[in-house]
Design a protein that fits this description.
Strand order of the largest sheet: 1-2
Radius of gyration: 35 Å
Strand content: 5-15%
Shape: elongated
Distance between the termini: 103 Å
């Protein structure tokens, strides 16, 4: 059952119950249309999410990690560092 539609009513009215300050006024034709459009878009969005299509579709190809040029083995050991030989050059004065 539709509420009485009146053009003199404001499109938005103060909300007495919810957290937002204003809500659609369904007694105004524009407010009623906005309410219907919001509900229709909400239902369409929920159907798209459920079917996993449109913007909610999974990616077409999953991301692959970058390939490595080397293979790791638990028995492999790191390359040992070579320590440079100490220099025994005398300091020069100029």
């Amino acid at each position: 059952m539709l509420p009485d539609v009146n053009d003199d009513e404001p499109i938005f009215k103060r909300d007495k119950r919810g957290p937002g300050p204003y809500v659609y006024n369904v007694r105004n034709p524009i407010g009623l249309a906005l309410t219907a459009i919001t509900l229709i878009l909400l239902v369409i969005m929920l159907v798209l999410m459920n079917k996993r299509v449109g913007p909610f579709a999974p990616p077409s190809s999953p991301e692959r990690p970058p390939s490595r040029d080397w293979e790791w083995s638990p028995t492999s050991r790191p390359t040992p560092w070579t320590t440079p030989a100490p220099t025994t050059a005398a300091p020069t004065t100029g």
